[in-house]
Amino acid sequence: MRGNDHWQYQGRQYHGWFRHGTGPGGRGEDAMTAALDGAIGAMPAAERRRYEAALADGAREDLAVAMRASVGPHGTMARDGQGSAGGGTVSSGIGAELRAAALNAVGTPAQRVAASSGIADMARKLGTGNLRRVAAQLARDAVTERERNIKDLTRIIYHEAGGESGLAQVAVGWVVVNRTRRNRTAAVEDVAAGFARSRIEPDLSKKENDVVRTIATAILDGLVPDPTNGATQFYTPRRMPKEGQPVGKSDVRGGLESVSGVLGAQDRPVRNYRPGWPDSRLPSGKPAFTEVAVPGVPVASFRFFRAAGDGHVR
Prior knowledge:
By secondary structure, the chain is mainly α. Helices cover 45% and strands 9% of the residues.
């Protein structure tokens, strides 16, 4: 396991998978709090004082947390448009409004103005009495969903790329997140069926496995960029059946290929089978997938592909 190696990407130096000089949340954190401040600041003076008081003592930060979660690769509102509050349920309208505001908050200047307006409307619907309670519950829901996503992503990276370099593990993790984005879901579990299905949890007392969780957390928190340029699929040539071996139920429709680093008996180069899906085509006849090179990740370990378009991927 080479999880703590240094690497460089697009002119930036990385170590331990955290970008130097970037704190949790990145641009999104500033955008959400700015939208909240803009919403309250635009209210008439008397109303502004009431809502400033309602959002004091951490309630403002709670709403910012919920907003970030609603548009990130985690967060219950992004998946189902609602959350729970005080033992009841926040109406789907409130959840949808908060998500819409969060999406606008990281958009154009006009969209950022719309974000503040949407937050103000939502706050007025809830009223000062409910705003603090709802903000606190939505933040708790967001934290719970975040932890679930970290756990699920850690497990997928562990089973798909355990023992690989840290860069390879980052790349695999980003493929998972790219699928959540393409499939318009906030939950890693919604796309988990497309990856290693083992439910065995990695032993985090082992340093190499704890590094995997660190990588998963960094990806979900936006602290490391996507080295795959939006890849949504991959396969591992060295794990595919080799020439002369039984293929079992493996997809070998792509036939045999020669990949540097794929070795057989006595460490001699050997051809491996290739799955059929990378060569599939759209109804238009255009390729359904484009291969993406990830410098630093051996092609024998992973070959990455990006599905055409920007819609749902299987």
